[in-house]
């Protein structure tokens, strides 16, 4: 029997319910209340130097760690019933009657269907022992990765497949994420006894499980660390992937590419890749939802007298815009079906806004024409209503 199995056997004789002062059929709430009361009354921070209370605090914490967890409690109750019905344990384990001819290991092995027996059951229950070394760590999903990609205005509307070069955290290629020097064998972490976590006090009557600082949660440690990753088990991986950016994507939109993130551990799935899309501005066109926008320069006479003007579209083919006489500056005209593609396959519109352009320099004929217009409209001041009474 190993030293670890001996310690687990000692646990078999402990009555954690009595330690907490509750009955065996106590509810989870009753157990929690009892633990908090005892932990508060015996906490080392409140009683510095009081060894008895420190020991009591440890005993209470140990008891609650087992019966305060539903799964552990069920296994503990089963183990206690086996121990109680056996009349003790053979082989030097603490017991009351010696139990000649009875070996608890045999009973547990039979109950577990041929497993490792006593050490396995206690290792599974308390986070250590021989059973821990036979268990595989659970598969872990890889981390999500985020990157930024810049695409053109046109590609944002039509959709595009882009190539991305990614560098992300991954298991060390030399030690496969174990953290040990290749060719060496691990052993159970002495800090957490193979549990992968340690119990830490967070003040008051509370404690919590934390990842073991010695093994990093791997449950095993190596005497010689991997020279490539220095025992971390992690490294950087560079790779190129193809990512499809859907049609109609907007500037700043976050696109999920499933399964293209960091690799998983112990057979776990890879994480996801998130691509934040940056759309380069277009020389002429803007975007408003599923519609495209365009500022169209016009002259004063085109708005005053009316005109037919040609405006471009994103596809390159021009369309004719009919401007009625007397059109105000800044009016927006809608050209159906010449905008961005929608998710349902239809197309938005082109919103063309007319903007009067004032020439910086006039030749003599143009100046005379503008002067003649000013003289003709001199009796109709545009700003008269600004000075009306009550305005």
Task: Write a short abstract of this structure.
This protein has 391 residues and is α+β, with helices and mostly antiparallel strands. The chain contains 11 helices and 15 strands.
CATH class label of the domain at 3-134: Mainly Alpha
Structural classification = alpha+beta
CATH topology of the domain at 3-134: Helix Hairpins
| Radius of gyration from CA coordinates | 39 Å
What's the architecture of the domain at 3-134 in CATH terms? Answer: Orthogonal Bundle
CATH superfamily heading of the domain at 3-134: DnaJ domain
The portion of residues forming beta strands comes to 15-25%
E-strand count? 15
Which spans of ≥5 residues are poorly predicted at pLDDT below 50?
A: 1-8, 85-105, 107-123, 126-136
Number of helices: 11
Structural account:
The protein is of the alpha+beta class. Among the domains are: 3-134, Orthogonal Bundle (Helix Hairpins), CATH 1.10.287.110; 285-376, HSP40/DNAj peptide-binding domain (Sandwich), CATH 2.60.260.20. It contains eleven helices and 15 strands. It has a four-stranded mixed sheet. Helix 3 packs antiparallel against helix 4 (51-67). Mean pLDDT is 79; it is low at 1-8, 85-105, 107-123 and 126-136.
Descriptive tags:
391 residues; alpha+beta; Helix Hairpins; HSP40/DNAj peptide-binding domain; four-stranded mixed beta sheet; three-stranded mixed beta sheet; 28% helix; disordered N terminus
Question: Layout of helices and strands, plus pairs?
Answer:
Blueprint lengths: L2 H10 L3 H5 L7 H15 L8 H17 L2 H17 L17 H8 L6 H9 L3 H5 L10 E7 L1 H6 L1 E12 L15 E2 L8 E5 L5 E5 L8 E2 L12 E12 L8 E4 L15 E7 L5 E4 L2 E8 L1 H6 L1 E5 L7 E5 L8 E4 L14 E7 L7 H13 L15
Parallel strand pairs: 1-9, 11-15
Antiparallel strand pairs: 2-7, 3-6, 4-5, 8-9, 10-11, 12-13, 14-15
Helix pairs in contact: 1-7, 3-4
């Amino acid at each position: 029997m190993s030293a670890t199995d001996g310690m687990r056997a000692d646990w078999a004789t402990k009555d954690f319910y009595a330690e907490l002062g509750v009955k065996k059929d106590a509810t989870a709430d009753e157990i929690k209340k009892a633990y908090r009361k005892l932990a508060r009354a015996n906490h080392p921070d409140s009683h510095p130097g009081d060894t008895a209370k420190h020991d009591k605090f440890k005993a209470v914490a140990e008891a609650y760690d087992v019966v305060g967890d539903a799964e552990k409690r069920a296994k503990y109750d089963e183990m206690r019933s086996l121990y109680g019905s056996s009349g003790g344990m053979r082989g030097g384990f603490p017991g009351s009657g010696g139990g000649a001819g009875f070996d608890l290991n045999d009973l547990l092995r039979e109950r577990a269907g041929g497993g490792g027996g006593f050490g396995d059951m206690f290792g599974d229950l308390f986070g250590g022992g021989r059973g821990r070394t036979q268990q595989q760590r659970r598969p872990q999903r890889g981390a999500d990765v985020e990157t930024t990609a810049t695409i053109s205005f046109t590609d944002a509307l039509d959709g595009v497949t882009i190539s991305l070069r990614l560098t992300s955290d991954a298991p060390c290629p030399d030690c496969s994420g174990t953290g040990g020097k290749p060719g060496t064998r691990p052993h159970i972490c002495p800090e957490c006894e193979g549990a992968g976590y340690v119990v830490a006090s967070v003040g008051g009557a509370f404690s919590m499980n934390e990842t073991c600082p010695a093994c990093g949660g791997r449950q095993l440690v190596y005497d010689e660390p991997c020279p490539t990753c220095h025992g971390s088990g992690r490294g950087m991986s560079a790779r190129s992937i193809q990512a499809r950016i859907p049609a109609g994507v907007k500037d700043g939109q976050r696109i999920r590419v499933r399964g293209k993130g960091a690799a998983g551990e112990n057979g776990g799935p890879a994480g996801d890749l998130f691509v934040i899309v940056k759309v380069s501005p277009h020389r002429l066109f803007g975007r408003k939802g599923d519609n495209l926008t365009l500022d169209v320069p016009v002259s004063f006479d085109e708005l005053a007298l009316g005109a037919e003007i040609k405006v471009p579209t994103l596809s390159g083919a021009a369309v004719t815009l009919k401007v009625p006489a007397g059109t105000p500056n800044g009016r927006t005209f809608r050209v159906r079906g010449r905008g961005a593609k929608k998710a349902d396959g239809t197309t938005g519109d082109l919103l063309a806004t007319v903007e009067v352009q004032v020439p910086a320099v006039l030749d003599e004929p143009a100046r005379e024409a503008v002067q003649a217009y000013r003289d003709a409209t001199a009796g109709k001041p545009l700003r008269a209503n600004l000075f009306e009474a009550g305005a």
